[in-house]
Amino acid sequence: MTRLYAIYGASGCGRSLMPVARQQLAREQDNSEIVFIDDALTGVSTVNGHRAMNYQAFLNEPASAKSVQIAIASSRVREKIALRLETDGIHLWSISADHVVLMDQIELAEGSALSPFVTIGSNVKLGKSFHANLYSYVEHDCVIGDFVTFAPGVKCNGNIHIHDHAYIGAGAMIKQGTPDQPLVIGQGAIVGMGAVVTKSVPAGVTVVGNPARIVESK
Ligand code: UDP
Questions:
Q1: Which atom of ligand 1 is the closest one to the Cα of 9?
Q2: What's the CA gap between 88 and 19, in Å, rounded?
Q3: What residues contact residue 77 under an 8 Å CB cut-off, 6+ apart?
Q4: What is the mean pLDDT of each run of 10 residues along the chain (218 residues)?
Q5: Ligand 1, atom 18: nearest CA belongs to which residue?
Q6: Are 127 and 110 in contact (CB under 8 A)?
Q7: Cα 67 to chain centroid, rounded
Q8: Is position 163 annotated as part of the catalytic site?
């Protein structure tokens, strides 16, 4: 029996990552089918030329093994779906585009998605289900946690630690840390689009602007 691959989510994120998934399989000379999974669907339809179905229908598909890339921007939703897939014994699939540059000694956990023109520097550790959108980079000696999301064009310089579930907005840039004192973006923090982050950001807060400052909740 054949292998079946899927992109979970058929909205913006999923439709942008499907071509990346096709590139991944083409490089591996694997001509297995890739389908979309989206729980908003009933029955089997077609999205951008691929079969699309809900999770229950995907489970019912005959295949010797199933691998899924969770292509949904919300990190909490990715985590919830990852737990469900693990329970069902389905493998979290990592995909990367043809035009991705990977330097030396990169540790990559399962389920990551590296979009076109992403660059990952040397001695970088990337957590589970990390999403790096178009043109983002992660420079040397960074440690990225689980379910972290980079919008397009994020500039993450050297010696930065980003904790689980942080979200970095489009075009944000983060100042490099040092080996002794990495710059830390705390768990679940949100860095606004275009922010210039010059110092560590506590867990759970939102920062915006140049230099980035915490947005006080009203
Ligand atoms: N979705 C799903 N199962 C879930 C949660 C979300 O299939 O448990 C789908 C949802 O129907 C939608 C997509 O995931 O099509 C999320 O799309 P959204 O437009 O919110 O954002 P994106 O992540 O594509 O930027």
A1: 14
A2: 26
A3: 70
A4: 94 98 98 98 95 98 97 98 98 98 98 98 98 98 99 98 99 98 98 98 98 91
A5: 11
A6: no
A7: 16
A8: no
Length of the chain, please? 218
Pull the structure tokens for residue 187: 């768990």
Residue 217 is predicted with a pLDDT of 78
Q: Tens digit of pLDDT for each residue in 85-140?
A: 999 999 999 999 999 999 999 999 999 999 999 999 999 999 999 999 999 999 99
Pocket of ligand 1 (CB under 6 A): 9-14, 38-40, 72-73, 77, 81
> Which pair of tokens denotes residue 90?
């389905």
Most ligand 1 atoms within 8 A of CB, residue of 69, 72, 81 to mutate: 72
Distance 39 CA to ligand 1 centre (A): 8
